[in-house]
Amino acid sequence: EIKKYTKKLKIDLVITPWDEQSMLFIKKLGIKFVKIASIDGNNYHFCEFIAKQRLPTIISTGMCTFKEILNTQKIFKKYNTPHIFLHCTSAYPSEEKDKNLNCIPKLQKLLKDHVGFSGHGTGVIGAVGATILGAKIIEKHVTLNKKMHGPDHAASLEFQTFKNMVNLCRKAYVSLGKSEKKFLKSEQLLHNILIRKFVIRKKLKKNIKLNFKNIKTALVYNKKGI
To answer: Can you give the pLDDT at residue 201?
Structure first.
């Protein structure tokens, strides 16, 4: 029923299996890709079973060490199963001091691959920061009402806040731009207004040699000067 609804909305359905039977059901259902919860990120026995199915897999890494993550990577590489790891802190909600977003570039370097972020905070700063650090996938819990009963609602965003988060992440991504420092077209207007030009400090006779004492740079607001 959920799969039909997501198809109607033209969005992908991602499911997290908690056991082998669930994984087989998901595969039979025709899901495009699956998600491994943080609690199973170092469950090599279960990871091996999922990797054998060869469905593209997203793997959360809360409560896992770098060494354990590298071990899980080896399993998925062994079966050539497409996968991506999400940096994650498994606290609901997680505080800013525990997000450790600097793990994202570290994981990128260790895994020699793209990395994502799974956020469980009450705000949007984790997702925006992760985007700036190069996260390629952002996972965020959403709820109809944060005051509802259940373990995840406090760490989830209501839909308007989620929408704001998506917009901020997109703006942050666009703002990264290029790693080249050069004169931009958008700077032309201010440049034309505020450009300093060389002018003489006082009237000079012909053939006088120009030097620091008789010329200076100045804001002229006209076509005079050099």
So the answer is: 95
Q: Which letter does DSSP use for residue 103 in this model?
A: H
CA 176, 142, 124, 133 dihedral sign is negative
Write out the two tokens for 184. 């931009």
Which parts of the chain have pLDDT scores under 70? none
The residues facing 200 across adjacent strands are: 215
Between the CA of residue 132 and those of 90, 101, 112, what are the distances in Å?
21, 10, 18
Q: Give the pLDDT of residue 34.
A: 98
Q: Which of 157, 136, 139 is nearest to 148 (CA)?
A: 157
**Distance in angstroms (rounded) separating the CA atoms of residues 63 and 123:** 21
The alpha carbons of the chain give a radius of gyration, in whole angstroms, of 27
Give the model's pLDDT for residue 223.
84
Q: How far apart are CA 164 and CA 37, in angstroms?
A: 26
CA dihedral 96, 97, 99, 100 (to 10 degrees): 140
How many angstroms separate the CA atoms of 134 and 142, rounded? 22
Cα–Cα distances in Å, from 41 out to 27, 58, 61, 77, 116? 20, 10, 6, 15, 14
- Other C-beta atoms within 10 Å of 224: how many? 9
